[in-house]
Design brief:
Keywords: NAD, Oxidoreductase. It is built from 17 helices and 14 strands. With 437 residues, it is an alpha/beta fold. It binds nicotinamide-adenine-dinucleotide (NAD).
């Protein structure tokens, strides 16, 4: 199959590279010339484990190429995937579909033969209808079908997720388009990945329902963590105790500083906007977004509290800035809100993140960046663990404590135990691990 991928970001680049690895011939198009130049020189514009090698292998095999020229890239394609961003629209939380519709119009101006157009971007219900209208209006004589095929990969584990998905959702009722999608994903049938064919609108909604459900699960366990702290219970044991029940499942039950990232915050808001537009309030999701927003600030307060009453002018070493490990993605990372509340309280911040500092730098005025965890902790009054990168999981705690002004640790990911941190001399606070008064 010949595939064109429009948008070479976290989703487009990983999907394009994986499709080419299946044996398809893929051209990734991005309007950002810096991204394309980097890719042509074998440099990845994002950090994603395994991506560089996968891209290099398929470029060398002649199956994967990059361009800024959409017109030439779509010529003769069997399928054109739209994988551009759909951020929150400033001010109201609706998904901003500007990039999707701009890409659609560019596609319409360039196609000449039958082609299946696939929205891989996360788009609100009804977007596929609008994409179809635009193309049919501009190209009334060309056979096209518009399919919804939402992506469920997780940053940091994106290649594995793409190649071994729990399911592939394909929203189209057209037989020809179903056949094209089956051919594209056929290599995955060996992995027994179930393909769920649905209507286009249903498929669009599945993506939002999935993300809202996962965001709810995280928020639920975070509130249970607060209760654990109040009653002297342990949230990790609660998670295990409920997660072993197959009806509940153990994933997404890790208490922490609240969800962030490029998807959950914007997708929950966009789902609420859709619900509002269709006069169908979703009160659970509404509460989830509110609880999660206030949680990030509460985590800032937790750190401030650990510093004591005279916290102004003190220094916190912040370990981990990205919204989760193994990515450089800083979009809506909890660290942003935490840093803001620390700065508002007159606290100095020394931060370290293994991959996120380049992108984080411009977003964090006044923050000093360190070369590693020990450098960040040097002279600090507290260390706060915000993202559970592997390099923070087995720190030499006595060494960390020795360099600090005061050995105080706020572990927002429950990486360490109170005993372990205590042995190294730390005054230790974590999340949802209450002790009896
Ligand atoms: P991204 O911002 O990393 O990448 C989008 C890319 O599209 C950018 O490089 C941009 O330059 C390019 N682009 C925009 N308009 C273009 C055009 N007209 N022609 C060519 N290129 C264009 O975004 P992302 O994180 O890859 O997300 C893409 C979509 O996938 C979003 O809808 C998102 O919600 C969804 N999604 C993301 C993830 C994730 O983990 N990041 C997971 C599942 C779904």
């Amino acid at each position: 199959m010949k595939i064109t991928m429009i948008g070479a970001g976290y989703v487009g680049l990983v999907s394009g590279a994986c499709f080419s690895d299946f044996g398809h011939v893929v051209t990734c198009v991005d309007k950002d010339p810096a991204k394309i130049t980097a890719l042509e020189n074998g440099k990845m514009p994002i950090f994603e484990p395994g991506l560089e090698a996968l891209v290099a292998k398929n470029v060398a095999a002649g199956r994967l190429s990059f361009t800024t020229e959409l017109a030439s890239a779509v010529a003769g394609a069997d399928a054109i995937f739209i994988a551009v961003g759909t951020p929150s629209r400033r001010g109201d939380g609706h998904a901003d579909l500007t990039y999707v519709y701009a890409a659609t119009r560019e596609i319409a101006a360039s196609i000449s033969g039958p082609v299946v157009i696939v929205t891989k971007s996360t788009v609100p219900v009804g977007t596929g209808d609008r994409v179809e209208d635009i193309i049919r209006e501009l190209c009334p004589d060309i056979r096209i079908e518009v399919v919804s095929n939402p992506e469920f990969l997780r940053e940091g584990a994106a290649i594995g997720d793409f190649k071994r998905p729990d399911r592939i959702v394909v929203g189209t009722e057209d037989e020809w388009a179903q056949g094209v999608m089956r051919d594209i994903y056929r290599p995955l049938f060996l992995n027994e990945a179930p393909v769920v064919f649905t209507s286009r609108r249903t498929s669009e909604l599945i993506k939002y329902a999935a993300n809202a459900f996962l965001a709810t699960k995280i928020t639920f366990i975070n509130e249970i963590a607060d209760l654990c702290e109040a009653v002297g219970a342990n949230v990790q044991d609660v998670s295990r105790g409920i997660g072993l029940d197959n009806r509940i499942g153990s994933k997404f039950l890790h208490a922490g500083p609240g969800y962030g990232g490029s998807c959950f915050p914007k997708d929950t808001l966009a789902l609420l906007k859709t619900a509002e537009d269709f006069n169908t309030p979703m009160r659970i999701v509404e509460a989830v977004t509110q609880v999660n927003d206030s949680r990030k600030r509460a985590m800032g307060r937790k750190i401030i509290q650990a510093l004591g009453d005279d916290h102004r002018g003190k220094t916190v070493a912040l370990l981990g800035l990205t919204f989760k490990p193994n990515t450089d993605d800083m979009r809506d990372a909890p660290s942003l809100a935490i840093i803001q509340s620390l700065k508002d309280a007159g606290i100095q911040i020394r931060a370290f993140d293994p991959e996120g500092m380049e992108i984080a730098g411009p977003l964090m005025e006044g923050v000093t960046f360190a070369t590693d965890a020990y450098d960040a902790a040097q002279g600090a009054d507290a260390v706060a663990l915000v993202t559970e990168w592997d390099v923070f999981r087995a720190l030499d705690l006595p060494r960390l404590a020795a360099g600090m002004n005061a050995p105080v640790m706020v572990d927002l990911r429950n990486i360490y135990s109170a005993q372990e941190a205590g042995r190294a001399g730390f005054t230790y606070t974590s999340v949802g691990r209450g002790t009896l008064p």
